[in-house]
Amino acid sequence: MKEVFTISAILEIAPQLWRGVQITVSILIAAALFAYIMSFIAGLCRLSNNFILRKLTGFYVEVFRGTSLIVQLFWLYYAIPMLFGINLGSNWWIGVIAIGLNYGAYLSEVVRSSILSVVQGQYEAATALNMSSFQRMRLIIFPQAVRMMLPEFGNYTIQILKGTSLVSLIGLTDILYYGDVMRSTSLSLSPLIYLTALVFYFILALPLIFLTRKAEKIAKKGVAS
Amino acid sequence: MNLNYWNWDTFFDALPVILQGLGITIGLTIASYLFALIFGFLWTFLRRIPNRFIYFIITWIMEFIRSTPPLVQLFFIYYALPVIPYIGISLHPFACAVLGLGIHFSTYIGEIYRSGIENVDKGQWEASTALNISTWDKWRKIILPQAIPPTIPMLGNYFIIMFKEVPLASTIGVAGIMLLARSYGAENWSYLEPLTIVGIIFLVLSYPSAVLIKKVENRFNKKFNKNQIIKDKGAMQ
Questions:
Q1: What secondary structure does DSSP assign to B53-74, as a single string?
Q2: Pairwise CB contact (< 8 Å): A70 & B167
């Protein structure tokens, strides 16, 4: 039992978990990109003048924010093939789509509220300068709103990293999956296995943490108050 | 779109089975939320110890807990805690989930308390020192009554967030609605209806509470902004 916390045990565990890093990182990147795209589409649609478009995206956002990621993941995994008779491709895609749609819904609220929080005077000034509504959005509102969004996008990217651990439940071979495989063969090592897995996730999160802090500085720079 | 697979008989057959787990799901939410509310204070006060080293360590421990997946933390508590030599204790899955989710979210709650405390006007601290109020009374009667109420909407949000994280506990065998739905699906070879029921339950419970909290938040904002204006006027005189 004394060998449970030794360097040699860590040297045995780390390479095993390392095999899962590729899946975790690829899902993180793909799901984050998907979520960013969804957030801008949904965020802008909710501000549109079209009633149907607004209600439809509102429905999407409330459904995905109102239920949890694990429910959505299992639903996509079990129910979509049954309901529509289609296959989403692979479990990798199911993971990416579930995480992307879930956090896209959360981020769309960030996009929406940031655009709404650009002061009214900016809209009025752009109108006074005879800009079209597209020009107004692209040149005046958006550049100011994006800066405000950055810290929240950083925070949610860390949330997405945490969310990727769920894909081990649908059989994807990520860090946690290899951790579980190791635990099932050597239970006495399990404290070290999960600790190493947590450290792996933390190392992946560190760049995101620093980027978020930087984003907070950028968002604050040059803003009165 | 092929809806032939949707079976209302299965739906109404599964509904009472799954609803049996609702008590556990809500109970776990409340228990882990209370745990997080209490544990959050611990983080906040540990960080206030006037020692840069302790501050640094606590800050990074909080950052570590916050930015690593709660699922892995749950597995650590459930699988690994019992086999740690000497201190190993094996807990009931429900207790594991309370501990895991509670600790994970206490780091967020602690951050909310901190922001509330930092927003208390500096004059209040100075005044309580000037009036020779003891540290205990200062916190209990002056600082916390002003620091906590403005954070209530944010704290309420975390209740809903935690409610949505509770199905994670199905992975370590807490028999909430998620686990019952999955076992029903495994027994009857139909996951579609039970998982849809779980989704509907979450939606039905979390959407109205989110709307309610939004309302509370608006009221609070009005109230505290009014105070802000009064204070500013006072400053001008």
A1: HHHHHHHHHHHHHHTS-HHHHH
A2: yes
Best mutation target, B60, B77, B79, B232, to test chain A (most A CBs within 10 A): B79
The reported pLDDT for the residue numbered B221 is 74
What is the pTM for the complete model shown?
0.88
pLDDT digits 0-9 by tens, B47-68:
999 999 999 999 999 999 999 9
Q: Taking CB atoms and an 8 Å limit, are A188 and B83 in contact across chains?
A: yes
* pLDDT band, residue A3 (cuts 50/70/90): low
Runs of H (alpha helix) within chain A: 7-45, 51-66, 69-74, 80-84, 91-116, 120-128, 133-135, 142-164, 175-185, 190-220
Is there a contact between A205 and B67 if contact means CB atoms under 8 Å apart?
A: yes
Answer whether B72 sits within 8 Å of A194, measured CB to CB: yes
Which DSSP category does B90 fall into? -
Distance from CA of B150 to the nearest CA of A (A): 20
Q: What is the mean pLDDT of residues B150-155?
A: 88
Contacts of B71 in chain A (CB under 8 A): 165-166, 168, 176
The CA distances from residue B121 to A114, B102, B136, B224, in Å, are 28, 30, 18, 13
Mean pLDDT of all residues in A211-217: 91
Nearest to B101, CA basis, from B35, B174, B21, B153: B35
CB nearest B68 (choices: A2, A63, A205): A205
List pLDDT tens digits, range A91-150. 899 999 999 999 999 999 999 999 998 888 988 999 899 998 888 888 988 888 998 899
| Nearest-by-Cβ selection for B71 from A66, A83, A165 | A165
User: What are the angstrom distances between the C-alpha of A35 and each of B31, B106, B168?
Assistant: 32, 27, 22
Instruction: Give the pLDDT confidence of A142-189 residue by residue, as tens digits.
Output: 888 998 899 999 999 999 999 999 999 998 999 999 999 998 888 888
Cβ–Cβ contacts within 10 Å for residue A52, how many?
Answer: 8
Host H or E run for residue B189: none
Burial zone of A86 (CB within 10 Å; 0-12 exposed, 13-18 middle, 19+ buried): exposed
Tell me the shortest Cα–Cα distance from A60 to chain B, in angstroms: 12
**Minimum-distance CB partner of A85 among B2, B75, B210:** B2
A162 contacts B68? CB cut-off 8 A: yes
